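User: Please predict the structure of the protein below. I'd like the answer in structure-token form so I can feed it into my own downstream comparison script.

Assistant: Understood. Taking the following sequence of 597 residues as input:
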Amino acid sequence: MGIEQQIREAVARAINELYGAEFDANNVPLELTRKDQNGDFTVVVFPLLRISRKKPEDTANDIGEFLKNELSSISSFEVIKGFLNLSLSHSYWLNILEQVVADENFGFTRADEESPLMMIEYSSPNTNKPLHLGHIRNNLLGYSLSRIGAATGRKVVKTNIVNDRGIHICKSMLAWKKWGEGQTPESTGKKGDHLVGDFYVKFDQELKKELSALQEKGLSKEEAEKESKLMEEARNMLRSWEAGDEEVVSLWKTMNDWVYAGFDETYKALGVDFDKIYYESQTYTVGRDMVLQGLKKGLFHRRDDNSVWADLSENGLDEKILLRSDGTSVYMTQDIGTAKMRFEDYKIDKMVYVVGNEQDYHFKVLSILLDRLGFEWGKDLVHFSYGMVELPEGKMKSREGTVVDADDLVAGMIDTAREMSKELGKLDGYTDEEAERIYRTIALAALKYFILKVDPRKNMTFDPRESIDFNGNTGPFIQYTYARVQSVFRKAQEKGIDTSLKVDADMALTEKEAGLIKLIGNFPNVVKDAGESYSPAIVANYVYDLAKEFNQFYHESPIVFEEDAAKRSLRLTLSHAVGQTIKQAMWLMGIDVPERM
């Protein structure tokens, strides 16, 4: 039983013995003590005054005396108005330190056969363009959530739905057919997703020319769009694809394969992966059949133009189209089909969709429809809604070719890491191969941490140079702190110092030492909170605080050069625990930590 629960149960006993009243231990108002006050945990006594019928200070003193006699881990208490601040003994914190060094997975909960299964969908790219900066935020959030889910005792399945059909795909295909002159990734030396993306931009450029020419002849914008031969050709190509035309389907398969090969390279560079990939071209017909079944059951209704709709007025929403008048699917239908296929493949307890906040309404509707269709997890699905990410230069548009490709961004980050590391002389004395490996590790840490430290619900601006600052709230700063811990042990070994991890339960702790152990001891709560609120930012902000505190401790307290052997041993053990916790926290964000920097 954790110390928080021990305190809650002791407070409940105190209320019973002191005031003759039953009180649920889970309702005891307990929180971490504010940083500007003494203590580790605070009992807020105001809600208890109706039971004690005493002044706040007297109630707090009564309960404080009871707890001090009841729990040996409480060394002292302090009353500030209606707040009872409890201080835990040094022996308690040293026992926590001992637990940390004995368990390299301290803070993590392992899943077992009975654990709930959480499926997380992220990435969801279109096969008409490369992954871009927005996809990076999506992938990093989704992958981090999968690790946090696994660390909180859930079985996790990472999944991706590839949007590989539709008019936008046909635009790239038509442009390649018209102007591609047989180009391939091999003949051009381009990644396949970039090559296909170039033709998506080409289509838009040619369409603008055509529309401009039509408008010069006196047509309105709307009339020009209706008269566009290029758009008509694209629509015809989509109809041919849906009819199974061999030539169109063959081109579709070829160009999609180019894109998949490109995506795989990008995913590998980002360090993300999936357990199962679904394709829209396989799920949209399943969704259509589900909707038609729902129609027969009276769950949906058909309008005079033959389109199928869901009436959501009883849920406070409007009507939602599920099938167009020509019988073709919309995105909602495809998501229903994907859900059915997933539920057949896995026994899902919780479904998490990592999708931008522009789709908030879509997922509100999807949740209602899945519940209506009988999916157990439909009502409680989680739309992990996140904000847009931009560069300092502003917004990006894929059709105009102004999007920052994920590959270009990662390459630029590595260049920036190399440049800044050389300026600071960080990797002097390393071989070129070692240095390049560390530049990549630093660059990816900078990118991932900078994105994950922000509350995911907020829009954000990503600044590459700011993200690699070795002294700021950045991934490289935290990596450098981990490397500093490893350096401490190398120096100790060079001096012949015993580096075995030992904890003397009778040691007196300095304020800094106790503070660090408290931070480390809180790691399980941080992981739990991140899992419950689906927020990697909680982990990011925690590990930055830990790194910052350790660096202050490092500068103020000798470790290797401490002459008192018992103090030196404690500080080495504490340093190890800090490094171990940093590594665990960074793992939750998909970030590697180098042994040397």
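That's the full token string. The two ends are 40 Å apart (CA to CA).
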